[in-house]
What does this fold into?
Amino acid sequence: EILRGDCVMAAADDLIDEVGGPMWESAAFDALVDTAREEMPALASRLLRTASEIHVTAERVRSTLRRMTAPTLADGVADARRHLDRLVYPGFVTATGRERLGDVLRYVRAIEFRVDRMPDETSRDRSRMAEILPLERRYARLLDSLPVDRRTPEFVGLGWTLEELRVSLFAQTLGAARGASTVKVARAL
It folds into this structure.
């Protein structure tokens, strides 16, 4: 039920954004309501299909992570869990938006790919964490230091580039959508 409501909210946000924001004049508001009646059910349904797939995959990964108790895997498991929690949480569909939802599905699949290989590639996983974690910490510090109104689309995009870098490092066969590299991200930061 929470996921369905999240998808309806995301669909509403998307439709409101398409018309240029909230409507304050009666005729424009009525037109928005008519558009919402026509388009929202199909849009919310599409979002729910993708969000459900994300949720099912995330739960499968969480289940696998709970069973990974070997001390040598602890750091990788903790990182994968934090990463998953950063992507999939109550309200993630609305927070992510329609345009990025397919990317989130790919990111969650990349976490699953990583977790499946982690027991056999522990040192390699650790090495990749050593590349990404300092960059993510720098980005988080910058994000925390900026007021919300100063977070430009380019700056927010850098966060998504970090997600692409994780795909590139941990699950390259799934394909990173953009050419992300540690050097490019470090330079951008």
